[in-house]
User: Fold MurR/RpiR family transcriptional regulator from Muricoccus vinaceus.
Amino acid sequence: MTVDAGQRGLLDELQRRHAGLSPRLRQAARHILDHPNQAALSTVTELSTAAGVQPSALIRLAQAIGFSGFSEMQKVLQSALAAASPSYGERVHQLRAAGAETGAMGLLRQAGALNQLSLQNLLDTVDPAALDRAIALLVKAPLVHVVGQRRSHPVAGYIAYGLTRSGKVARLMAGAAGMLRDEAETMRPGDALVVISLHPYSADAVETAAWAASHGVSVVALSDGPLSPLLASASVALDVRDAELFGFRALVAQMCLAQVLVLGVLQAGQPGQG
Assistant:
């Protein structure tokens, strides 16, 4: 593989080889697949820390797929980001400047720069046809169920709230008192399920999606790409990735996508629409 491969070719190659890599290289590859923009912007030390591996693992990974080293592999990701976003250079400068600043304002500027990248990545990579199909499934369904565990729970709550406020019958599956499976079994054929789960995936969310798909329920999955276990159950999948700062993943891109789903359903219900 060479620097001419392009980001899509690089990510496809990482996905293809993922299962055959050593555990540490799989961990490094997984992080790059989940966070290609972070991989484009970070030093090898910063990226290895975020991925939980040694810098040497990133170098070995690059060599395993045909590059001379990490820097050559990173150029592929940087070229894609620069082509998609004309302000790439300025954002890199802002991110590095924010990282050098201490205190709360330094954190704010760094978080702001990372979240801008997450939103730009969403705009650059979203599948318009998949987005339209997702909205159509939600419009058609008599009842929309929404599930998101742990840090995806606020996104699920927003979708359920927004759909309800828009006049759509929707309910948040909270799984209180360990009753998520019981809630899932109330879903009926023709209903829709919106499930949000990113790596590391919620086993409960994956199981709920699988149950729904096997019982005639349309599944709209918000997840993070080709290795997501939700893809096996999804009627339509929307790829969304948020940046992490010191191990805490933001929700900016996920919330933006959630807002679009709600507004799309609302718009479809307006006179002259749909």
